[in-house]
Specification:
Blueprint: H1 2-8, H2 13-32, E1 36-39, E2 42-45, H3 46-69, H4 74-93, H5 97-119, H6 124-129, H7 137-164, H8 167-188, H9 190-195, H10 200-205
Antiparallel strand pairs: 1-2
Amino acid sequence: MSDSHTAGAKPWVKPLLEFGPLILFFAVFMLWRNDTVAVFGQAYGGFMLATLVFVPVQTIATLIQWRLTGKLAPMQVATLVLVVVFGGATLWLNDPRFFKIKPTIIYLLFAAILGTSLVLRRNWLGAVLSEALPMDAAGWRKLTARMAVFFLGLALLNELVWRTMSETSWVWFKTFGLPVLIFVFLMGNAGLFKAHALPAGDAKDG
């Protein structure tokens, strides 16, 4: 069932589900950032209104991905849980700090998981990504170490931005800065992917 759904999906569906909620968050914030809107008797500024829209849309998008593919990556599940928890706390307490700290928690969690896999000598990253990126064991160890440090750096950077810069600056950073940094990181590791790639026959056998 999942294979037929995935094969029949349009090529734009996956990026729309992954980036659509974030772009919608950005759009709502920019449109209402200087206004106050009453929702169910509660006065919300633009940031809170954008969060109110983002949480259910992100939840629906994740459920649609699960429906189309029949599975979700552990990082997708962890991200959704934190979105609901910290987004809910933000709205319940009408305090944007909870939502701003969410990326910090997510990236610290990822860094901790990857660091633990290195200490235990387990290839957890490869178990998740080996189909899309077949590499040898040495390649996965190097990539795991680099990603652990990278996620730790993103967590620290997010803290620096939201604590020292304006709310609008953080929204720009969250919407565009973080994805660009992740893209640059992946491109910067293209040499590692190539150097440790498995031969086509071994990749299929694995």
